[in-house]
Specification:
The chain has eleven helices and eight strands. The chain starts with 6 loop residues before the first strand and ends with a helix. Helix 1 runs parallel beside helix 2, helix 5 packs across helix 7 and helix 10 packs parallel to helix 11. About 45% of the residues lie in helices and about 15% in strands. It is globular and about 45 Å long. The chain has a single domain, classed as Aldolase class I (TIM Barrel), CATH 3.20.20. The mean pLDDT is about 95. The relative contact order is 0.16. It is of the alpha/beta class and about 260 residues long. The structure holds 2-phosphoglycolic acid. The site of 2-phosphoglycolic acid (PGA) has 13 residues, from strand 8.
């Protein structure tokens, strides 16, 4: 089943970067990505102030770019928020929604995340919907209940046609930025569960890309990406080093050929 699905590698810069560092990083990622663009879709989600820089440096290159959050509104008195349409004006095609850091530090509920996913789709962005359990939840045997509920909130709001256009990123909270990735087996188990949940809503959702995120590194990427239901990765820390990020893209390419 994994044979038909294209692999994705998306960088999540989080709140990192400065103009000069970004320029160097983008240049080497763009140079290296050329050789892989046939087999892997590569993207970077950057802090919003850098959208113009990314647009001017990546225009015409085989790379997508996007933002790390969007408002549920198109415009209005929402100080500090950014509308999906604003990101689209800078050529963005991706928007991360529901990252666990936003759920934790900005109290974003699954219903709000679902509304953001729908808003992204309406504006023409592909939402990368992040879901994942905490360590306490995993140890209490609640992983499927938690990630199933987070996914259901989105599936309940979207039509099948809309849901077919989302990307889902499974990111166990305990694996993010900790250096402690889920094992390939742990990740595959959850991905298989999520795939089944998507297909329960509609068979057409079998092709939704399911990315794994949480301490993906060059050393573990290939094994993770070789799993039947893992369609690539959402990469935090390692996306800030071009060599590591490109090595992860190469692992996705190798896995897509092996599949
Ligand atoms: P990490 O972050 O790769 O640094 O663990 C992943 C993410 O939070 O998207």
């Amino acid at each position: 089943m994994s044979k038909q699905r294209v692999k994705w590698v998306v960088g999540n810069w989080k709140m990192h970067g400065r103009l000069a560092d970004n320029a160097a990083l983008l240049q080497s990622v763009a140079e290296g990505a050329g050789a892989m663009a046939d087999a892997v879709r590569i993207g970077v989600c950057v802090p919003t102030p850098y959208l113009a820089q990314v647009q001017s440096q990546l225009a015409g290159k085989p790379l997508a770019w996007g933002v790390q959050d969007i408002s549920t509104y198109t415009h209005g008195a929402y100080t500090g928020d950014v509308a999906a349409e604003m990101a689209v004006e800078f050529g963005a095609t991706l928007a991360i929604v529901g990252h666990s850091e936003r759920r934790a530090y900005h109290a974003e509920s699954s219903e709000l995340v679902a509304a953001k996913a729908r808003r992204a789709l309406e504006a023409g962005l592909t939402p990368i919907v992040c879901i994942g359990e905490t360590l306490d939840e995993r140890e209490a045997g609640k992983t499927e209940a938690v990630v199933g509920g987070q996914l259901d909130a989105v599936l309940n709001l979207l039509s099948v046609q809309e849901a077919a256009r989302i990307i889902v990123a499974y990111e166990p909270v305990w694996a993010i930025g900790t250096g402690r990735s889920a094992t390939a087996r742990q990740a595959q188990e959850v991905h298989a569960f999520l795939r089944a949940r998507l297909m329960q809503k509609d068979a057409a959702l079998a092709s939704v890309a399911l990315l794994y995120g949480g301490s993906v590194k060059p050393e573990n990427a290939q094994e993770l990406f070789a799993q039947a239901d893992i369609d690539g990765g959402l990469i935090g820390g390692a996306s800030l080093k071009s060599q590591d990020f490109l090595a992860i893209c190469a692992a996705a390419k190798a896995a897509s050929h092996a599949g």
